[in-house]
Model the fold of this input.
Amino acid sequence: MPRPIQATIHSDALHHNLARARAAAPDARVWAVVKANAYGHGIERVFEGLRGADGFALLDLDEARRVRALGWRGPVLLLEGVFEQRDLELCSRLDLWHTVHCDEQIDMLATHKTNLPHRVFLKMNSGMNRLGFTPSRYRAAWTRLNALPQVDEISLMTHFSDADGAPGIAAQMAVFAAITRDLPGERSLSNSAATLRHRVSAETASQQPDTQAASDWVRPGIALYGSAPDYPAGNANAWGLQPAMTLASKIIATQDLVAGQSVGYGSAFVADQDMRIGIVACGYADGYPRLCGTGTPVLVHGLRTRTLGRVSMDMLAVDLTPLAQAGQPAGFGSPVTLWGRADNGGVLDIDEVARHAGTLGYELMCALAPRVPVLVDG
Ligand SMILES: *Cc1c(COP(=O)(O)O)cnc(C)c1O
Done:
């Protein structure tokens, strides 16, 4: 019998979340962002749920190869472009579209031998200051690319730093619009947060052609996996998103603590009254954050309770008091949902767990440990 820990990828949720992203940008085509091995879900495992996307966007050439190996003949975009000259050969061979964000990438293209000109996405650094040409250098980069026989169509791209927060996207939008106003080509600007929070309705778009241009291609990632890009201001339920990953395990022991007794390393939790606790087969070596202290929400039999004390490598402790109060017997073998869906229809947002560790749903899903067996349902 293997350890009872198990992750499940829900194809129906991926499918549903993709439809939510489409509904938020009805005139746009959708890049399903599957970098970082589909945010920890596994590219091969999400493929079925996301095959309705218009393209797959990622960073790693090997991941691009895996998408092609799945039989995907549609667009594939390298979000950071190529890293060295010979990567361009793979782009030619696998028909990969690639971002161009710096002069070195244009130099490589200029000496690349290909019969098949490449589709490129020219990236503007409109304020994020990670990748891209500054607004003052963007048009010169476009002109240089446009003169290369190795380049076919040039699309225009930028990335927002604050789509999930109060500053919003207006300043970066204005910079991008001003510089690109008369340049031809498709536009791609929005990640999940921008797609959901700053959606452009058909009416506002027709009054503001610049924002219409924003919606040729959207690039949702996190929303497809069912996590809210702007938690806690927004949450998955409010955005109509469903968790694409469940991490579940079971109780493998119970202890009856007498008031004053503690549980786990450092005796970090001390019972203030007699209580029954459950020990769950899940620890930080499974990808559950060690920084989740006492009080992190967890579901047992789909009912909400809390973790107790420190998370150790292979185990964590949960409070069974609320289950007793609800008349739900719990003990050896009881199902535990660390995040995602429970059998009774209950849901625990990965974002809520992440917040207790001072981080984001993104980091938790990406950190699912290789030792956890993963099932695909649907
Ligand atoms: C990761 C990434 C996205 C997706 O971001 P989410 O916040 O997960 O929606 C979009 N565009 C680029 C360039 C990215 O690197």
User: Anything to note?
Assistant: The chain has a mean pLDDT of 95. The domain at 245-348 is CATH 2.40.37.10 (Lyase, Ornithine Decarboxylase; Chain A, domain 1). The pocket of pyridoxal-5'-phosphate is lined by residues 33, 35, 79, 159, 191-193, 219-223, 229 (CB under 6 Å). The first helix runs from residue 11 to 24.
